[in-house]
């Protein structure tokens, strides 16, 4: 939130002349321009450029005081009734920000303080501000420009509320699609288990009851063997699509069963801390946490290089916490804990049930924690 170049310090404030900014910063004659640009004064050009920007722009001196703002800043201040005298000119910018209802902007304010103190930039942040006309999301950019030991900081705010709402709507739609996919998997798994598998089982039993001699007996045995393999594949596919244990026993036993099978197949030394009597929850929450457990264990096997891991499930007040910890290589250097390693699909699944997930370095290894509201399943 900032103010306009041509309104650089009005008459009732100690006046800065046009030449003061240009000369103090050394901008008066050294811009590389075509011949036609010589008709423009440096200050007029700066003023025109900053007013053409649609973002709210403020220019701060090296003490953090607002010395200029653009038209967009003034219109924003008027529309949202910020009550800034002279649009904040002469005020400390951080103090102006602290007067706003922006609980998530503390990191941005500290970043600006650091920039003013000489830390490198530019810096960018996104946070929400609650204003008289409703909440908005902004993207704040802080850039320091220096010349001859003098500094200015250019602050720009863009309203990204529409983009944020679109991203949130896309996330909800994607999560709904994932859960619709789980429902379809469940339907296919039931049809395979209750339909196709039963036909194959009947054919196998009928073959087994046949009494034949010679070559026919050899054919019967071969066909029976093929039916046995087909049944095993269908049952395995049905389990992968939708584990029956999730409906029959609930989340706790289902994760335990899945984890034990995973440990046998991969040779991973897996410590499982899940109560045998873990209560059943509503189906969307159980499905979301089960899929997170599957994805997290797969990531341990594919990426961590860890010979051992631990998985736990427990109720924590009104929430349920699923934790998966490995003891491997940890997060790659420079990797953000909020991206990669299959985290996007896990986050979407949990957001759909009003939960959240975190991925943190555990030194050694990585700790995944998935939280969701504990909603007990109603008695049938």
Percent helix, as a range, is 40-55%
Provide the β-strand percentage band. Answer: 15-25%
**Intertermini distance:** 56 Å
Sheet with most strands: strand arrangement: 2-1-5-4-3
Question: Overall pLDDT, averaged?
Answer: 77
- Helix/strand order, N-terminal first: HHEEHHHEEEHHHHEHEEHEE
Please tally the β strands and state the result. Answer: 10
What structural class results from the helix and strand content?
Answer: alpha+beta
Outline, from the CA principal axes? Answer: elongated
Query: Which oligomeric form is depicted?
Result: single chain
Could you name the ranges where pLDDT drops below 50 across 5 or more consecutive residues? 1-38, 337-341
Please provide a written account of the structure.
- The protein is α+β, with helices and mostly antiparallel strands and 380 residues long.
- It has eleven helices and ten strands.
- The chain has helices at 18-25, 42-52, 71-79, 93-98, 106-116, 161-209, 215-241, 244-248, 251-266, 283-304, 343-352; strands spanning 56-60, 66-69, 123-131, 134-147, 150-159, 269-274, 308-316, 319-326, 356-361, 366-373.
- The strands form two sheets. Strands 2-1-5-4-3 form a five-stranded antiparallel beta sheet, with helices on both faces. The chain has a five-stranded mixed beta sheet with strand order 6-7-8-10-9.
- α6 packs antiparallel against α7 and α9 runs parallel beside α10.
- The protein starts with 17 loop residues before the first helix and ends in a 7-residue tail after the last strand.
- Residues 1-38 and 337-341 have low confidence and may be disordered.
